[in-house]
Write a structure and sequence with these properties.
The protein is of the alpha+beta class and 124 residues long. It has one domain (2-123). The protein is 40% helix and 28% strand. It has a five-stranded mixed β-sheet, sandwiched between helices. Helix 1 (2-22) crosses helix 2.
Amino acid sequence: MVEENKIAASVVNSAIRVHRELGPGLLESAYQAALSHVLINEGFKVEKEKPQHIYFEGERIDCGYRIDLLINDKVIVELKAVESLKKIHTAQILTYLKLSGCRLGIILNFNVRLLKHGIKRVIL
């Protein structure tokens, strides 16, 4: 979990940098592009909109689930630009953690005045 914690710290610092420059009020896709750019430039492997399959009765089912960002195959980052985080957002990232085998996820809500109020760390 040490590696995941280091990745998470870098993700949060990079997200704060993006938020300071762009501010709230943009679409999620803008924050995704900017955060991906920063993390890639810092040397991280970043997969955007990574398909997440489910398995039912031994069969893989493609059902349209997508992880916003997967960092170094270890940390899931879900981006939001909403009024406030809800329980469903936590349920969503917990599901992605279970399905992917990852242990750490971060929800980042960019639609806040200070990003520290829009960060939620989720551990499986």
